[in-house]
From TrEMBL:
Highest taxon listed in the record's lineage: Bacteria
SMART domains documented for this protein: Lactamase_B
Pfam families: Lactamase_B
Full protein name: MBL fold metallo-hydrolase
């Protein structure tokens, strides 16, 4: 079994929807990976400081998860990874949803992602490996990233809840398939870091989540 460095996870609740952005680092290495740099990313950017950012990983491209992409990518010169099903969402405020709720902020556009993501793909970052799971339902290109026993699942599975499926491209059937067919196959002690709210575990959600 691959020995993975211990992953330090720092969470930042950003923007009007309190989206969780995650800064991932490993001890002794001046590098990081950012998952879902949300709107109003000032606290995240301040914490990053002079860290080299190897990649921005997007669980999906809804506006509240991508608001800080442009600023972070320009300041750090780091590539963005996004599932191909949402390849044109970064450039289109209607698709990413920022044009739907103008009261939450200006329309969001940024350049396309440098890299696509596929189910089963493995990304070598932070001296370890992230496994990619395509977990649609909340959105067609939603993915979850697994590093050791730490899962970054975006808006698929929350503590005692699940992601909404009433937005364009959403599907309740796909969401249940993603949760039962992929996430619930993971060990009970897998820690879930969701796109909103507190962390949880696969075992806790399998036993207690009323929506699954």
């Amino acid at each position: 079994m691959e020995q993975k460095p211990v992953l330090k996870v720092e969470a930042f609740s950003l923007g009007p929807l309190q989206t969780n952005a995650y800064l991932l680092t490993v001890p002794g290495v001046n590098k990081g990976v950012v998952i879902d740099p949300g709107m109003n990313p000032g606290p995240l950017l301040k914490r990053i400081g002079d860290l080299e950012i190897e990649a921005i990983l997007l669980t999906h491209a809804h506006f509240d998860h991508i608001g800080g992409v442009d600023e972070l990518r320009r300041s750090k010169g780091c590539p963005v990874y996004l599932h191909d099903a949402e390849s044109d969402w970064l450039t289109d405020p209607k698709r990413n949803g920022s044009a739907r709720w103008p009261e939450l902020g200006a329309p969001i556009t940024t350049d396309p992602a440098e890299h696509g993501l596929d189910d089963g793909q493995r990304l070598t970052l932070l001296e370890g490996t992230f496994q990619v799971f395509h977990t649609p339902g909340h959105s067609p290109g939603s993915v979850s990233f697994l590093y050791g026993n730490q899962l970054f699942g975006g808006d698929v599975l929350f503590k005692l809840s699940v992601g909404r499926t009433d937005l364009p491209g959403g599907s309740q059937r796909d969401l249940m398939d993603s949760i039962h067919g992929k996430l619930f196959d993971l060990p009970d002690d897998t820690i879930v870091y969701p796109g909103h709210g507190p962390k949880t575990t696969i075992g806790y959600e399998r036993e207690h989540n009323p929506y699954v």
